[in-house]
Every structure is written in structure tokens, then in C-alpha cells.
Amino acid sequence: MKQTILGLSLCLYFFIGCTSLKDKKDSPEFAELTNQFFAEFWTLHPKLASEKGKTDLEKMLSLPTDEEREKKVQFYKKHLNKFMNYSEEDLSIAQRIDRSVLINEMKKRQWKLEEFKEYQWNPASHNVGEAISYVVNKKHRPIKDRLDDLSEKLLLVKPFYTAAQESIKNPSKIHTEHAIDQTKGLISYLKKDVSKIVEDSNLGSRDKSTIKQRIGVATSAAQGYIRFLRKVLSNPQLVGGFRDFRLDAGTYSKKFEFELQINDSPKELYKKALDAKEDLRSKMFEAAIALYPKYYGEKLPPKDRHKVITNILNFVSKQHPKRDEFLIKIKEQLPELKDFIKRHNLLTLDDTRPLEVRETPSYLRGYAGASVEAPGPFNKNDSTYYNVTPLDKMSKKQAESYLREYNNYMLQILNIHEALPGHYVQSIYANKTKSLVRSVFYNNALVEGWAVYAERMMLEQGYAKDNQELWLVYYKWLLRSVTNTILDYEIHHNNLSKKEAMELMIAGAFQEKSEAEGKWHRARLKAVQLSSYFGGFSAIYDLREKVKKEKEEDFKLNEFHESFLGYGQAPIKEIKKWML
Fold this sequence. Notes:
This protein has 580 residues and is mainly α. The protein contains 26 helices and 3 strands. A 3-stranded mixed beta sheet has the order 1-3-2, covered by helices on one side. Helix 2 packs antiparallel against helix 4 and helix 5 packs antiparallel against helix 12 (249-260).
């Protein structure tokens, strides 16, 4: 049996406490420093505390004022200095990773407030919807406790939006429009969902009346924010005029470095994506040629490769759910994925962690068609929500285009990505790690990269069998992730226009118009995030292949998965350092 350092590092399952023989014991002093950090951190970030399952700060709402931002900056500087000056030599491997994560987190947060200043130009960054939902959705807490906390939090909504208005300066037009749409969703959520929770509760009539009155005040504050933003749209000079939604190359690179923490630079990842694009188009052609006789009989395929792929995709895309069965089809397919993972021993699943497929809450719509909202380390047994945006606001033509993109085959890839063994499973492993640091703070490239890696891994292990339609659609999906990187880079480095972006996605990546329109909208709202998919996937896949080469016949796929996920949500380059 081949003996390597890897054999020891594969034992680093922090969530079950196993450590390498060469590892040091945890430093009590560093552990205490970390505890002190969190004790102060939570009070400054009550929304994140609530998101991660803490319940002692539910009444609080951090207001977007200059005073609060300065408090946070001073906090980041103070603790950055402490962690920077703490020597690595006496730390365990787990603590070394935690130190690295905390240093990056403090630098990133300080940079975002002092230089990036999104609170000024992105009005959509001021949204109390999630802060409210985290309180009311903690089903393990008595309803009275939740509504008592909600009642106090609602009192802060009006000063929140007053401070938000005062923060806006030189906003982007698209972010202003997005803020209006999401704030409309917030109002709907307060009037319908939250009001119903109050009405259906066992509170007395006086308490119900008090909360409903406060919901009304909060709703009025949100409506006031919308009126303010509409004035900005009609007269942007009120707030110094509109800025371009694009980032300059330097700002983009800084954000890329903080959020992805991969070894590739933006330009290097962009070049990788261009190469991957051509490779995937070739694979799609091979799959389409293999399917041609099935759909065209003895008719010869056209000489144009692009036409061959398009012809077959036209047939495959017609195989999709009905408009009103979209969520139902997603739910129905999940047990099949779970069974496949267990039968092939790909990794350990935890059947005690509930997964609920639901319509995306109204205050979150307008960014992504599907997403996952997972519980944190303090409420790890709560439900993970698989959010799917319904198609009720789409025209018949838009809905058909969307369903052609998310056909019966694409839905399977989507479910792998969002749920099994993608985001849902990864979040469970993150909450199992002993490191609070790596269950609270997440690395974008790891989170999205794992979900994209999971798609490829499932098909490699036989999920697709000999289904050429599924392989064709998978290549199209991966091409979409690759194109995300190209789109993201081109927008912020080469001033890509909408016309050029649509050509890139529709002609270059075979996307339906509805998908391309949505992605163009999304790409302008949040720079760098779209690069996390391919950036993370390529880093994880490369790491797996290196581990496989090192281990040779001793390599076990499930061991790799559990070891990798056992590091929590650390940057991939940190995990790679210790696994290799």
C-alpha cells in the first residue's frame, strides 16, 4: 500500500474530530481569542447571527448609518490586527485555516465598507426581508417567542429605511430598479405571509393587534423607500447622478480575490473558460451526432456542427414539465437522487435534516430562478429551503422559453446542483465541522464549485447511464457555468454590451432567450459571483485528480468527498494545501 502524507491528511474529518498524527493540539489561547471575536461580532451583525440560528439577538436590526458602519470598521481593524499578529507555529491545522479565513473576512469586510461602498450605489442592499424571515421561520422556537422578537424588530424598520435613503449616493440604475422590485416583494411578504402567521398564532387579540399595527408601520416605511427610489429614477441628480453598474478592472480583481480565493487570477480563469467552451461544444456535437438517428432516422445531419446541436436540442427541450407542475416535478425527482447516492456510497447523507421545496419568497425574487437557504450551526436541525421561483409572472411565450431551458433533463442537473449532493448536502457538512469560523463564513468558490462538481461526479458514477440526452444537456449546463465566467469578465473588463452578451449566451452556449435575459440581468447586479461556479469547479476537480494520482489504487471517492467537505467552507486553496 502506497504511504503518503495524503494518507494522513485524509484523516482530517474535523466534524468527527479525527486529526493527523503530525497535527498539533488546538491552542486554548487562540480558541479564546476566537470566542472573544464572535461575542462582539454577533452584536454588530444581528442579521447574520439570526441567519446562523442564534436567537438572543432576534430583536435587533443593524441600521445602515455612518455610525454603525464606523463601529464595524473599527472592529474589523482591531481583530484583523490580533489575528495577523498571532503566530501560526503553535496552532493546529484547523486553527491555521480558521486564522486564514478570519484574516480574509476582516480584510474583505473592511474593504467593502471603506472602498467598495456598495451601501451607497446599490439600494437593493438595504432589505429587511431576510432579517424578518429568519425570526419567523425558526419553527423549533415557540411561536410566542418568535412573534415577541418580531414585534420588537418591526419597530426598527422605519429608522432602517430612513438611514437607507440617507446612504444612497450615485446609485446604479439597474440596482435602483431591482431595489424597487424587491421592496415590493417585501411589502407583499409582510401583508400576506407575516400577517397570516400572526393571525394563525395563539397570541391574544391585543398582542395580535399590536404586531399588525407595527407591520403597517413597517409596510409604510418600505412604501416610502419605494417612493424615494422612484424619485431617484426620475431625477438621479437628487443623489449625485447614476453610476455605471460595471466595476473597473482593479475593483473587480480585488473583489474576485476576496470572494473566490482560488489560485487563478481573473484573466487566467477567463482564458481557462474560453478553452473549456470549445471543448464542451465539441462534446455536445458528439452527443448530438449520436442522437441524430433517433430523432431524424436515416436523414443525414447538416455539415454545420452548430446546426446539428441546435436541431437535437430542439427535440430534447420540448420534453419539459407543464407550467403548473414545475415545482411538483422538482420534488418528485429528489428521492431518486438520494437513492443513487446511497447505493453508490458516494458520501454519507443525513436523513434527519429536512429539505423543503418552496416558492421563492417575494422579497428575494428577481435574482436567481432557484437557490438554497440553509440553517446555520446554531439551528442545524431546521429545514433547508430549496427556493424555486414560480412562473406565474411570465407570459405564455416567456414561460415556454423557460421550460424549454429547464426541461426534464435539465431539471435533474438542477436538483443535483441545488440539493443532492449539491448545496443541501454541502451545507449539512459545513454545520458538522467543529470550526464555528468555517460554518459561519463561507467561500463562494467552494460553495458553488462543489455544486457544479457534484453534477459532473454524479454523471461520471453512472447516474446518466447511456442516456445521451442527459449527457447532452449536462454539457450544455456546464457550458453555461463556463459562459458565466466569460460573461462576468467581459462585462467588467471589455464593456460587453447586451447584444454581445445575448449572442454569447444564445449562439455560443445554446441558451434559451429567457435564460439569457435573466442571466444578463443577474450579471449586472452582482459582479464576480458568476465566476465562482467554473472557478470553484475547476479547482475542486483538479484537486480530486491530483489526490487520485497520489493515492493510485488506494483512492476512494467517498473518502475524498468526506475529507474535502470535512474542512467546512474554507477556501479551496487552503484545503488543497493540507490535503496534498
